[in-house]
Specification:
By secondary structure, the protein is an alpha+beta fold. It contains 2 helices and 8 strands, in the order E-E-E-E-H-E-E-E-E-H. It has helices at residues 49-65, 107-117, and strands at residues 3-9, 12-22, 27-36, 39-48, 68-74, 77-85, 88-95, 101-106. A 4-stranded antiparallel β-sheet has the order 1-2-3-4. Strands 5-6-7-8 form a 4-stranded antiparallel β-sheet. A hairpin with a 5-residue loop joins strand 7 and strand 8.
Length: 121
């Protein structure tokens, strides 16, 4: 069973597709998919339950304050949500050796992502 968390921007979206949950090793296998127009880029990563919980907690904190940023980084990949001011958010996604891609969004779209994570209803 696949669970998807969508970080929606005005001109594209980033999806965290949870492909596998390993309860014994406490790890998630996630396919991060960037979709813009006809372009799709993906990055498969594995993160611990602790890393996932930390990201969810930091994401909730920044979302409630409507300012600041939260980053998930793994080796050659990073994703950052930047809350600039009330309502305006940037989703930055980058891979080592490539330019960072930025999608503009707002907090209402990202509130849906928090609900999908399960920390915000």
């Amino acid at each position: 069973m696949e669970h998807t968390i969508a970080f929606i921007g005005y001109e594209g979206k980033v999806e965290w597709r949870i492909l596998q949950v390993d309860r014994l090793e406490e790890r998630l296998e996630i396919d991060v998919v960037l979709s813009q127009s006809d372009n799709r880029t993906s990055h498969r990563c594995s993160l611990s339950f602790t890393e996932y919980d930390r990201f969810a907690h930091d994401f909730l904190t920044v979302h409630e304050q409507l300012r600041g940023f939260v980053t998930y980084t793994q080796a050659d990949f990073h994703m950052t949500l930047i809350y600039h001011r009330l309502g305006h958010v940037s989703i930055e996604l980058g891979w080592k050796g490539q330019n960072t891609i930025t999608l503009q969004s707002d907090q209402s779209y990202l509130g849906q992502a928090l609900a999908s994570i399960g920390v915000y209803t």
